[in-house]
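Chain particulars:
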Amino acid sequence: MARSKFPAYFCNDVSNYHAHGGFDVFTKDRKAEQEIVESPAVYHPPCAQWGRLKAFARVDPAEKALALWALDMVQNHGGVLEHPRSTSLLRHIEPSARHAYDSFNGFLISVNLSWFGFPAEKKTVLYIVGITRSMLPVIPYSLDAPIMRLGSATSNKEALPKNRRSETPPAMVAWIHEVLELIMDHRKTRA
């Protein structure tokens, strides 16, 4: 059975989404807002304007608006929005999504990208619309200590290079594709 191809918005030019084969990848050069695909998708909107260190980011209202656009898209078409766990974007998601479902039938889960093979601890929140929590594929959980660190020297681990900090590990890409397939299947059974 051929797997579906889903949009992956706001990816880096060297993103693992390119290698997977199950995604139509949108990078900075290919503007997401100009090619709206009305299917479940994965969204990785820029986080500098929303993250814990937003006070140090160059103010960019257009970049900040991309996250709100992505939130609107996932709420209307289903999919997965990925952002750092400390994101202030969560203020724009109904509080009920944290422990149940919001009015879009969306919910939040918290994962660590190291569970999916990322070399450093990277706490991430996923906002998922289109299936129930019980339908999620198994989330890998690892007690292995990450071998690298993000940011400042608070440990003796080697620092992850800046160009790798926004990477989505291949296992996470595959897991997200599986989630999007489930959303499409669930949509078909409800139609």
